[in-house]
Amino acid sequence: MDYVFAPPAVPSLPVIGSGARFPLRRVFCIGRNYAEHAREMGAEVASRAAPVFFCKPADAVVADGADVPYPSATADLHHEVEMVVALGAGGRDIPADRALERVYGYGVGLDLTRRDLQAAAKAKSLPWDTAKAFDHSAPVSALRRAADVGHPARARLTLDVNGVRRQDADIADMVFTVPEIVAELSRLFELKAGDLIFTGTPAGVAALARGDRFRAELAGVAVLEGRIA
C-alpha cells in the first residue's frame, strides 16, 4: 500500500522474559480510584457508581527507561504512580467475572500531569486533554505476563523521587478492581488487544523538576526507573 508519507512506528513495550514486544493500541486511564488521592485533590471520594475515565495517545508512552522530557506550557508537572494493565484480547460488554481472561500482563507507570493546566480546566469545567494527554506523559515499565505472575489483587505500589519515598499504597485499596474497570470500559468502548489501562494513583502526588530521578515499583511485578530531562 502506498502512503502519502511513511507511517509512524507502532509504539510498544518490552515483555519480561520474552524477546517479543507488546504493540500498543489505546491508553485508557481511570481517575480518583484511590479514596485518599481523591481527598488530597479536594474531590469527592470516588463513587462506586460513577468511574471517571480519560485517555492518552499511545505515542505518549515512554518505554525502556528512556529520559522523559519536561513538558512545555507548564510550571507544575506532577507524578502519579499507577499499576498498568495490558490487554491481550478485548470485546464489548465484558462481564467482570470474565475480564481477567483478557489481561495479557501487568506493569507500573506514571500518569504525568500538567497540574496547573488541569486546575485551570477544572475551574472552567473544561476537558483535561492538555493536562493529561501531552507528549511523553506516560512512562511505563516492561510488562510481566499474567501467565508468569498471575493476577495480583494485593501488591505494594510505590514511587521514590531522588531516593525519597513519595507514594506508597496497596492496589487492594483501589475503589474499582481490575475486573470492574475492564468491564466498565468495555461498556463504553470496544476493547482490543494492545490496549493499556492505567488503574489510578494513591495519595502523595507532587511536583517533578528537571533532573529528578524516579523509581516506581509494583512489588513482585515490575520496576520503572527514569529521569526528567
Automatic annotation (TrEMBL):
The keyword Transcription regulation does not apply. Keywords: Metal-binding. Gene3D superfamilies: Fumarylacetoacetase-like, C-terminal domain. SUPFAM superfamilies: FAH. Residues 27-228 form the Fumarylacetoacetase-like C-terminal domain. GO terms for molecular function: acetylpyruvate hydrolase activity; metal ion binding. PANTHER family: ACYLPYRUVASE (PTHR11820), FLUTATHIONE S-TRANSFERASE (PTHR11820:SF90). This is 2-keto-4-pentenoatehydratase/2-oxohepta-3-ene-1, 7-dioic acid hydratase. The lineage of its organism: Bacteria, Pseudomonadati, Pseudomonadota, Gammaproteobacteria, Lysobacterales.
